[in-house]
């Protein structure tokens, strides 16, 4: 299995957004251990903005997150795009690259992420594409569990079995999106705690946490447009308790508040990581963050 454990990424992160550039150019808050960008939004940026971006990637740790590789798509992988991506990843020395376990293209770009049929045939197909992409990029890809809103047709296994099978067949590492576990569990009626504990913990190298919204039908939608809710924090606590602490990023892509407001959630990630890094299960931390971490722990216990 490829490993990113030695990638140098640790702690709590935040998406690198143009809205925050003026604040970040003045000072990067110490609670932010790394940044993440969507490759497609930055690959072709040059001029002054490109120079600013290069200055940040030279001074801080960055993770690349993909939106359009379409690992489950029917069209051949875009080799030219992968080669351009490799050059960009090399140029900015990204710590690693992650992509969704989904498809987003057919005979054109679909501008959304769609679920792959949960079948043995799909397992083999997607695993082959992951291996090919990794060979071209000359680096491992951390595969992320995606939110989905319609159950894939023709399924002969459930989502959890499918994820595990793809990761095993491709022998790749896993990017755990905790909010997607929660959203899918509500929309598709499964226990998120049991689902989480069925994931391959040894393959988890990276995590996302985010907020979501409820549409008019009552379904949850992974918009990254609201604060993280308590049940999702509790799932993150369970992930750290079950698998150990892994670098975790706060996603926020809609209804963007001031940077200072987002930092409170990044600090919550850091507090939870501090709690589990100290491995004082059931105790109180004698630190400034200990009260919050201990409270989260007690609330998580009560929810079980």
Overall helicity: 40-55%
Strand order of the largest sheet: 1-2-3-4-7-8-9-12
Runs with pLDDT <50, length 5+? 107-111, 280-293, 300-304
Classification by helices and strands? alpha/beta
Q: Whole-number radius of gyration?
A: 19 Å
Our estimate of the beta-strand percent is 15-25%
Query: Helix and strand succession?
Result: EHEHEHEEEHEHEHHEEEHEHH
Distance between the termini: 33 Å
Calculate the mean pLDDT score and round it. 88
Count of DSSP strands: 12
Number of helices: 10
Q: Keyphrases for this structure?
A:
two-stranded antiparallel ribbon, eight-stranded parallel β-barrel, about 300 residues, disordered C terminus, alpha/beta
How would you characterize the overall build of this protein?
There is one protein chain. The protein contains 10 helices and 12 strands. The protein is of the alpha/beta class and 304 residues long. Strands 1-2-3-4-7-8-9-12 form an 8-stranded parallel beta barrel, surrounded by 4 helices. A two-stranded antiparallel sheet has the order 5-6. Strands 10-11 form a two-stranded antiparallel ribbon. β5 and β6 form a beta hairpin. It is globular, with a radius of gyration of 19 Å. The chain starts with 11 loop residues before the first strand and ends with a helix. The relative contact order is 0.12.
């Amino acid at each position: 299995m490829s490993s990113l454990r030695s990638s140098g990424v640790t702690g709590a992160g935040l998406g690198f957004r143009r809205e925050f550039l003026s604040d970040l150019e003045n000072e990067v808050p110490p609670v932010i251990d790394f940044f993440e960008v969507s490759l497609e939004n930055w690959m072709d940026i040059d001029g002054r903005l490109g120079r600013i971006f290069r200055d940040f990637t030279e001074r801080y740790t960055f993770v690349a997150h993909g939106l359009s590789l379409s690992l489950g798509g029917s069209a051949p992988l875009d080799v030219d795009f992968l080669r351009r991506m490799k050059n960009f990843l090399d140029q900015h020395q990204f710590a690693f690259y992650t992509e969704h376990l989904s498809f987003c293209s057919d005979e054109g770009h679909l501008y959304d992420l769609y679920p792959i049929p949960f079948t043995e045939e799909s397992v083999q197909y997607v695993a082959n594409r992951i291996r090919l992409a990794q060979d071209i990029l000359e680096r491992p890809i951390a595969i992320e569990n995606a939110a989905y809103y319609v159950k894939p047709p023709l399924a002969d296994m459930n989502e959890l079995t499918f994820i595990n099978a793809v990761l095993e067949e491709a022998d790749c590492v896993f990017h755990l999106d905790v909010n997607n576990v929660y959203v899918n569990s509500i929309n598709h009626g499964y226990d998120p705690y049991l689902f989480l504990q069925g994931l391959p913990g040894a393959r988890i190298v990276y995590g996302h946490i985010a907020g979501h919204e409820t549409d008019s039908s009552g379904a949850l939608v992974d918009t990254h447009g609201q604060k993280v809710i308590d049940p999702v924090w509790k799932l993150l606590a369970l992930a750290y308790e079950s698998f150990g602490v892994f670098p975790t990023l706060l996603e926020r892509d809609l209804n963007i508040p001031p940077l200072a407001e987002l930092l409170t959630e990044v600090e919550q990630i850091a507090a939870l990581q501090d709690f589990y890094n100290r491995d004082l299960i059931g105790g109180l931390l004698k630190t400034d963050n200990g009260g919050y971490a201990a409270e989260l722990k007690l609330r998580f216990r009560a929810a079980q």
